[in-house]
Design brief:
Chain A: It holds the Pfam family oligo_HPY. The complex is a heterodimer of chains A (330) and B (331). Chain A is α/β, with parallel strands linked by helices. In chain A, strands 6-7-8-3-9-10-12-11 form an eight-stranded mixed sheet, with helices on both faces. In chain A, strands 2-1-4-5 form a four-stranded antiparallel sheet, with helices on one face. Chain A is globular, with a radius of gyration of 21 Å. The two termini of chain A are 20 Å apart. Chain B has 331 residues and is an alpha/beta fold. Chain B has one domain: Rossmann fold (3-Layer(aba) Sandwich). Chain B contains ten helices and twelve strands. In chain B, the strands form two sheets. In chain B, strands 6-7-8-3-9-10-12-11 form an eight-stranded mixed sheet, with helices on both faces. A four-stranded antiparallel sheet of chain B has the order 2-1-4-5. In chain B, helix 5 runs parallel beside helix 6. The longest helix of chain B has 18 residues. Chain B is globular. The relative contact order of chain B is 0.14. Classes of the chains: A alpha/beta (330), B alpha/beta (331). At the A-B interface, helix 6, helix 7, helix 8, helix 9 and helix 10 of A face helix 5, helix 6, helix 7, helix 8 and helix 9 of B.
């Protein structure tokens, strides 16, 4: 069952030197209970997409077009008052930086309880009780003591657990996790990824995971959308994507990341595969394929005509004129 | 045996935190607490470990951005940790640094030309104006930037290009050793690969030694010769790349390696998830500093600090479990 569908989303920002097409016609859907990863490098539009779902972008300068359907309604058409019932309730979010996204002058318990009191009308006392339960759920020891502490008294990993507790307090249907482990050390990242996997089983929320780390994607995602320069260039189930990436950008990304253990194998490459050049400016209209300027196999066709996203294998979409296509692709 | 390019012996850096009347009970943060290693010409040694393990403090002490508390630093056979600022100055040319953040490590009001010319002028490397221009052009070519870019300002460049400028600035002084403190960590995947390749090419061409500080173990494995793993101010394991990655001996190294997410959905590895957080370096645990999180800790670990002992060849580990109790474990 489709929980959220983003249809031809466009997010353009008016800037003093022209329109920045941060997201330019992106569509995807998230099914109930699934984990969808959105992967791409800085400026590809992945965070802007998630901010658009929550309608957290100031309009203007942002201008949103397209549709974001959630529970039968188009979030882009909802009045602000109704959006407030959805944020932190049916859809919640975990940000990258647990230090700056918690309020330093409120106790952890107050911050977890805030959403519960607002959305579920709990009393202060009941909300604190529930906050203790939430801290237990996310694996914080001594929750009764911790619930009265302030963010600065917690370590980075614990703060991110608190963020997760806040996000899950109202049992959301969709959890947006924007680079949830990027600021954490690797052993703490392992703890948080384990927690997210475990909670997904127990809570059943769908997760939209935004990340640039292909390792994290491989560990937690069911399906993956690859974005580049504001467009979706590939989408597939996680195994299909890693086994046979179709878009040259996805293949480039995978070649550019060394794999732990690979260096000791015979025939290991001495150099990392580079993607030459850099991401194009989003302020000039790009008529052809957005990746043409850096693609090793680009032709005149690529530079003049944007390739359509089409199935290259069952359930595997890619936007490339030359991506290999299976006979059975439907 | 020839003298190594750099030899660090029992380096310590304690930061005084104040507190206590007349400083009698002043506490100190033992950021680096007895670190020793050597580095040869043309070699890469990587310092790995998590936030607060002291790896950046090692770098900054070597650069003498602050004076070390104790220990020795010997560069090319000459002790440099006790030199006066004036005596050290000409030697600073030999160790240069590339920083993590290419946005804050370049002066926004200087043109690239002036950024690169500064070390050349400081150390009097250019004979005349023409020589300076030639050096600047060669540096730009070496790091893969167009010569015209010399007249531009840092804000006109992307993150990857700025990191190239940072590398060119380090090379301008003609150093023997470049310390890269998380130099590729802030870069996007595709750009990171470009910079890693550039560093490896430069090392080969110029026979540079690199002290590569990073928390990204996959990048480290790709480009290093030797690895030192740090935990709470100490090296817990040091050895050749192959030994560290294929047969790590210290339980912390094993956990660290197993925690790295691998971009293969069916990798099917067993992960050692460490409980809890890194303890505070102000009051580190007694005995082995890792015992509070170690899955194998036993009584002796809580009381007696293990020494960094050889476990075969160039490979050293600081752990009370001997080879029999703790078989080398493939990550």
């Amino acid at each position: 069952m489709t929980l959220l569908s983003v249809e031809n989303l466009q997010v353009h920002f008016r800037t003093p030197d022209g329109v920045n097409r941060a997201v330019d016609g992106v569509s995807f859907a998230i099914r109930a209970g699934e984990t969808l990863a959105i992967v791409g490098e800085s400026g590809c539009g992945k965070s802007v997409t998630s901010m658009s779902i929550l309608r957290l972008l100031p309009e203007p300068p942002a201008r949103l077009a397209g549709a974001i359907r959630f529970d039968g309604r188009d979030l882009l058409q909802l009045p602000e008052r109704e959006m407030r019932h959805i944020r932190g309730n049916a859809i919640s979010v975990i940000f990258q930086e647990p230090m700056t996204s918690l309020n330093p002058v409120l106790t952890v318990g107050r911050q977890i309880g805030e959403t519960l009191r607002l959305h579920q009308g709990l009393s202060r006392k009941d909300a604190e009780e529930r906050a203790v339960e939430m801290l237990t759920l996310v694996g914080i020891p001594e929750p009764r003591r911790r619930v009265r502490e302030y963010p600065h008294q917690l370590s980075g990993g614990m703060r991110q657990r608190v963020m997760i507790a806040i996000a899950l307090a109202c049992s959301p249907k969709l959890l947006i996790a924007d680079e949830p482990t990027t600021a954490l050390d690797v052993t703490i990242q392992a703890q948080i990824l384990d927690l997210m996997r475990d909670l997904k089983r127990r809570v059943g929320a769908a997760i939209m995971l935004i990340t640039h780390d292909l390792g994290v994607v491989a560990e937690v995602a069911d399906r993956v959308v690859v974005m580049y320069a504001g467009r979706k260039v590939e989408e597939a189930a996680v195994r299909d994507l890693f086994r046979s990436p179709r878009h040259p950008y996805t293949r480039g990304l995978m070649g550019a990341v060394p794999r732990l253990g690979a260096a000791e194998q015979p025939g290991a490459p001495q150099r990392l595969a580079e993607i030459p050049g850099m991401v194009p400016s989003l302020k000039t209209r790009i008529d052809g394929c957005v990746f043409a300027g850096r693609c090793p196999s680009a032709t005149d066709l690529c530079r003049s005509h944007a390739p359509a996203l089409e199935p290259k294998a069952p359930g595997h979409l890619a936007a490339c004129h030359y991506a290999p296509k299976d006979a059975l692709a439907a | 045996m020839t003298t190594p390019l750099l030899a660090v012996d029992d380096l310590r850096k304690h930061f005084l935190l104040g507190g206590g009347l007349l400083g009698r009970h002043a506490r100190s943060l033992k950021a680096v607490d007895g670190v020793s290693f050597t580095l040869e010409k043309g070699e890469t040694l990587s310092l790995v470990g998590e936030s607060g393990c002291g790896k950046s403090t090692v770098a900054r002490s070597l650069m003498r951005l602050f004076p070390p508390t104790s220990g020795q630093v010997v560069l090319g056979g000459r002790r440099i940790d006790d030199l006066s600022a004036g005596a050290l100055r000409p030697l600073r040319r030999r160790i240069q640094m590339v920083f993590q953040d290419p946005f804050s490590s370049l002066n926004p009001r200087m043109r690239v030309r002036d950024i690169l010319a500064e070390p050349i002028r400081n150390f009097g490397l250019a004979r005349n104006r023409a020589d300076l221009d030639g050096r600047l052009a060669a540096l730009m070519e070496r790091v893969g930037l167009p010569r015209e870019a010399l007249s531009r300002f840092p804000h006109e460049f992307s993150g990857g290009q700025r990191q190239r400028i940072g590398i060119a600035r380090a090379l301008a002084a003609e150093p023997d050793l470049i310390i890269c403190d998380e130099a590729v960590s802030a870069l996007d995947v595709s750009v990171k690969a470009q910079i890693v390749n550039l560093l490896q090419d430069l090392q080969k061409e110029l026979d540079l030694a690199l002290l590569f500080i990073s928390h990204d173990l996959a990048i480290v494995e790709h480009m290093t010769h030797r690895v030192a793993v740090m935990y709470l101010g100490k090296i817990v394991e040091i050895g050749p790349r192959r030994e560290i990655f294929l047969a790590p001996r210290h339980p912390y190294t094993q956990a660290l390696l197993s925690a790295v997410p691998v971009p293969e959905p069916d990798a099917g590895r067993t992960r050692i998830v460490l409980r809890g957080d890194v303890p505070s370096p102000i009051n580190p645990p007694a005995g082995c500093r890792f015992h509070t999180r170690c899955p194998h800790a036993f009584e002796r670990c809580r009381t007696e600090e293990p020494r960094l002992d050889p476990v075969g060849g160039d490979h050293f580990a600081a752990c009370h479990l001997d080879g029999a109790a703790l078989p080398a474990q493939a990550a």
